[in-house]
Each structure stands twice: as C-alpha cells, then as structure tokens.
Design brief:
Blueprint: E1 12-14, H1 22-35, E2 45-53, E3 58-62, H2 75-86, E4 92-101, H3 114-127, E5 132-136, E6 142-145
Parallel strand pairs: 4-5
Antiparallel strand pairs: 1-6, 2-3, 2-4, 5-6
This protein binds tetrahydrodeoxyuridine (THU).
Length: 162
Amino acid sequence: MIKKIEITASFSVFPSVDDLPNDVQELMKQAVEVRKNAYAPYSNFKVGCAILLDNDKIVVGSNQENAAYPSGLCAERVAIFQSGVVYPEAKILKMAITAASENTQVNQPIPPCGACRQSISEYEVKQETPIEIYFMGETGEIYKSDSLKNLLPLMFDKKALG
Ligand code: THU
C-alpha cells in the first residue's frame, strides 16, 4: 500500500521593517549595516545576517567570496559559525537576513540557501528550541519562519547517525 506524506510550510509576512517587533527591527538594522561589508566582487550580491542570542548578544555575518568560487561562504554560515565560536553555550533565538544586488533591485524576500539551512539545522537540533528566521531583500516584505524545521522538511540530522 502506497501512502502519501504531506509536509506543509507556513510563513508570516510583514509588509515592511516598521511592522516587525522592536527587537527584530534592531536585528534587521544590524543585518542591513553588516550587508554593506560583504565581500562579493564576483556576484555583486551582498547578504547580511544578524543573530540574537539568549544572552542578549548579537552576532553578525556577511558573505565572503573567493576567486575559487566554492571557497567563499554565505552570510548566514559566517554568522552562525561565529556565534558557535564566541558564545558556544548560548541559544540562538532569532536570525535576520537581508540581501541586495548591485545589478538589480531586490524587492522580494531572499531565503537562506539549502546549505545554510542544513548548517542552521545543526544548531536548532542541538539547542532543542526553535530559531525564528526573518528574511527580506533590500526593500519590500519580510518573511518569518517560526523555525528552521519549517524551511527544511525531512531534514537530515544527528539522529540518523545513531
Ligand atoms: N549567499 C548568501 O550569503 N546567503 C544565501 O543564503 C544565498 C547566497 C551569497 C553567496 C554568494 O556570495 C552570493 O550570495 C551569490 O550567491
């Protein structure tokens, strides 16, 4: 007998940064600031990420490219690895992500790539509490995912390793 499994994803949509809760507005502001420090001479696509921890610290990251393209790293992983280095015991509460391009106006929300979702999932599984993820372009709506799990159905995690 063949059965079907259905997994749904849902997002809250905020019309603009002004509509976000105050702490997330501040987080997004920092993501926008750090986005300007992205090193993206190859794609001209700049991403900023700010992470709020349960110790009230904010850790930021921007994408860092490389002439050997795959050696570069996305903003989200720069930020989340940095939080693991500096505050290994802290829980991650919220992530704010923003992307802008020098080639075109990015006015739709830009979600974290698949590899970043996998990296973020490691920390959500480890801390056993959900990470809120807010993402936007340079302008326009902001999408909120209540957890990483919502962005990565059937995720591979340490449970598979036994
Ligand atoms: N990028 C990120 O920083 N985060 C993502 O989730 C998607 C892509 C970066 C990688 C590369 O430097 C540039 O955007 C274009 O792919």
